[in-house]
Write a structure and sequence with these properties.
Elements lengths: L5 H6 L5 H6 L5 E11 L5 H12 L10 H26 L8 H16 L6 E10 L3 H10 L2 E8 L6 H16 L6 E4 L7 H17 L6 E7 L3 H5 L4 H16 L6 E6 L12 H10 L4 E5 L8 H17 L4 E4 L7 H14 L5
Parallel strand pairs: 1-2, 1-3, 3-4, 5-6, 5-7, 7-8
């Protein structure tokens, strides 16, 4: 049996039904913003589901042996969810019935889409590494929209294996099960990008002008990490230091006026120091009465900034003699913050547009 080549079929006036039935849609470009994650509900059950996924990731807790599994399932997931649910309730967006992190990340996606609306064929979406909307669900939705190219944007200024790398792990796992994979790019960390440092400085200055007091110093608090992760080669600490030094230079402050600390330690291992809560406690005991805290490791306000810093650490400061405490908001979906994301995305889309 002889089958005509498509060109020969065309010459013979025979329709190429293979092309006609399948069709080739114009290729679109997907931009997927990804943040850490959040429970679906501010109750013990919702927090338990979230924590189980989060703490079962070997990028977050590297030793996933039997001892850890017994501790996780026998102790942590039995006791911690109810307590953390109470913390979530303190900051929960009751109007939308979701965490502020989800509200802000959605807004960032919508504003980025609007900013890129003059570019044909770009689809912007957002996902959470843990919880919903999942990376898997959003990649599937973008693929269904004809996106043959995918730019993943981990919303972490500083790289760490426990944040940026695990986003890539999940993206790769999703693509591993796809027959028609999109072409993939991932944005790099932007910890010392001039646009990012400028945005931080502008945001801090603007917020300080709204305060009824002048802080004696600013504490730059970054999320903590076990020291052993750094010892194994994670670049996170060095990038936090680089961010802080660049911000000091941009704002004309020295180390005594813009201090670097690390928050949110968990478990019994030694974590990156100095610790935020202990530093703030000591500052108050040493006679400092007015401080402001900024969190340059977070692209959006969340439990760690709105509850841990703005409430818990404010109480620590005042309980030990401090008087006035201000938590400076993250860049969120502000104009300076969105400009950082937009510039990052446009740079990484070069050659695709």
């Amino acid at each position: 049996m002889i089958v005509a080549h498509p060109i020969d079929r065309a010459k013979d006036g025979i329709e190429d039904d293979t092309t006609a039935s399948v069709g080739v849609r114009p290729e679109r470009i997907a931009v997927l913003l990804v943040n850490l994650g959040t429970p679906d509900s501010a109750d013990a059950r919702g927090v338990r589901v979230y924590l189980k996924e989060f703490l079962s990731d070997p990028r977050v807790i590297e030793n996933q042996g039997l001892l850890w599994k017994l501790a996780l399932n026998g102790v942590i997931l039995r006791t911690r969810p109810a307590r953390k649910a109470r913390d979530y309730l303190k900051i929960w967006n009751t109007e939308k019935n979701e965490s502020p992190l989800k509200t802000i990340t959605r807004a960032q996606s919508e504003k980025l889409a609007a900013a890129l609306s003059d570019q044909d064929g770009i689809v912007v979406d957002w996902a959470m590494r843990y919880g919903n909307p999942s990376i898997r669900s959003r990649i599937a939705a973008l693929s269904a929209q004809g996106c043959g190219r995918l730019l993943v944007v981990p919303l972490y200024p500083q790289y760490s294996a426990a944040t940026s790398a695990t986003v890539c792990d999940e993206v790769f796992a999703v693509l591993a099960n796809m027959r028609a994979q999109p072409i993939l790019r991932v944005t790099p960390p932007y910890y010392d990008e001039p646009d990012y440092i400028d945005a931080l400085a502008v945001s801090i200055d603007a917020h300080l002008k709204t305060l009824p007091f002048i802080p004696e110093l600013i504490v730059a608090s970054f999320h903590g990490m076990p020291q052993k992760y750094i010892d194994k080669g994670d670049p996170y600490q060095a990038q936090c230091v680089a961010t802080t030094e660049a911000l000091r230079k941009r704002m004309g402050l020295d180390a005594s006026k813009l201090m670097l600390t690390f928050q949110s330690r968990f478990g019994f291992d030694q974590w990156l120091q100095p610790y935020t809560d202990m530093t703030i406690k000591q500052l108050a005991k040493d006679g400092v009465r007015r401080i402001a805290v900024v969190t340059p490791g977070f692209s959006a306000d969340c439990l760690e900034t709105l509850e841990e810093i703005a409430q818990e650490n404010a109480e620590i400061f005042k309980h030990n003699g401090g008087e006035q405490f201000a938590a400076i908001p993250c860049l969120n979906d502000s104009e300076p913050g969105m400009d950082v994301i937009r510039q990052l995305v446009l740079r990484e889309l070069q050659g695709w547009l």
